């Protein structure tokens, strides 16, 4: 296996020069830089990233902790985070917490021990002090945990307003709202706040159904939607706080012999790619998932480089109407 000394000898430069090329420090002519890289490739030299990270006190790795990469929103978010991280020279270490506090703590401590440059938190089951003890730049998604830790969220209340107002305007007389467990301290709960405010304002009969604490457990969706339709057969509008819940609602309504949108109008949330693949195509509140991913990486970079940054980052949403309404 080739060493840095072998590279220096064959390239005709000093070991210090090779080190400067690898760490992008000091002035190096383009010709010398090119020669060093060509020699590294010729010899098959692989620099020791761990040693380099200790020297630089930077790992160029960002940890991303999410509930589950199988969930469409988080899989798309992870894709965008990785893309923009790569543009800034970072690699991404992906961790699935499955909303397990023990597992999330293990991952958080692992990332801290390995000196990652920052952590993007898309899963939030730990107490705030656990995040403060990380001592690395942190960005949270859809949860404000500290006045000094930046967070990113879409305009959740506005999204809930847009969805509920559309169902009311379409003439729905009894609207069901299916949401995550509201005991979780998430900014996404504002979607449910908006739903209550709008149906109350218009005097529309309504029912709110919450998932259990494992809000991303898809096995429960069929069960709670089936029970909803059995107990409230006159429901003619459904606002779900994710596209995947809305997709299950479409399936269960069709199983119950209901025609969409004639008998039941359905709106999801996120507008993941799959929303337009369904039949009928799903009306949804579009979150700017790509911008959330880009901004998360940008906020990590700004913290690392000591640049000013906003702690509160609210992004706009929009209604995308399709065939389910």
From TrEMBL:
Record bears the keyword Membrane: no
Q: Which InterPro entries match?
A: HTH_LacI, LacI/GalR-like_sensor, Lambda_DNA-bd_dom_sf, Peripla_BP_I
Q: List, alphabetically, the Pfam families matched.
A: LacI (PF00356), Peripla_BP_3 (PF13377)
Keywords of the record, alphabetical order, are:
DNA-binding, Repressor, Transcription, Transcription regulation
Q: DNA-binding: present as a keyword of the record?
A: yes
Lineage, top-rank taxon, reads: Bacteria
Question: Ranges for the HTH lacI-type domain?
Answer: 2-56
* Entry-linked PANTHER family: LACI-RELATED TRANSCRIPTIONAL REPRESSOR, RIBOSE OPERON REPRESSOR
Q: What is this protein called?
A: LacI family sucrose operon transcriptional repressor
Gene source species = Paenibacillus sediminis
